[in-house]
Amino acid sequence: MPENPLAIAPELPRHFDEIDQITREVFGPGMFARAAYKLRERVLPEASLSFVALKGNRVVGSVRQTRIWIGNKPALLLGPLCVLPTFKNGGIGKRLMLEAVEAAKTFQHDEDVNLILLVGDLAYYAPFGFKQVSADKIIMPRPVDPGRVLACELSEGALKAAEGEVRAWA
Ligand SMILES: CC(C)(COP(=O)(O)OP(=O)(O)OC[C@H]1O[C@@H](n2cnc3c(N)ncnc32)[C@H](O)[C@@H]1OP(=O)(O)O)[C@@H](O)C(=O)NCCC(=O)NCCS
Questions:
Q1: Nearest residue by C-alpha to atom 5 in ligand 1
Q2: Does residue 1 fall inside a structural domain?
Q3: CA–CA gap between residue 129 and residue 47 (Å, rounded)
Q4: For 17-50, how does the pLDDT look when each residue is reduced to its tens digit (9 = 90+)?
């Protein structure tokens, strides 16, 4: 029987349980202590900006984006980005990233959101437009390796203007 092709689709409520299982499997219990988790724990991901990778009906990867504040400006927090270990290095993470950043660019026109923030490895995220940010200017709610706080501008100059404490949207 032919293998199911991979599809990237908007995240729906019916995917929540599988996404939860994948994130727990990939990140382990340490995920609850992370700065990014604290920002997301009481806020639903933005449905129009969050995507799943599907093989048939099975969720094999996920990327989410959640609204946050940086100082007094709205922004997005990207993550978790995760792919089931058996599907790693097959380009799924890249496809999810491209879809998420593209959707954020459209969202930006409507919502005055000019920046995507994430905590991750620069080597992986740089090709999607992410750069390291200054830990003195953008202050995370929990200790985090400053070299891993990255941002992608959705409009020119957004990073220069971003300043202050990063807070949950709620
Ligand atoms: C990181 C992750 C999302 C990448 O997704 P993927 O579908 O496996 O990766 P892709 O096929 O898109 O990309 C593979 C490439 O990225 C590289 N890569 C993977 N993780 C990387 C990392 N943390 N830093 C730098 N490069 C990385 C691989 O070496 C590979 O390089 P190549 O193309 O030169 O061979 C996935 O491996 C995963 O879920 N990892 C565990 C969770 C995690 O670390 N999430 C990101 C933190 S927010």
A1: 93
A2: no
A3: 22
A4: 999 999 999 998 888 888 898 999 999 999 999 9
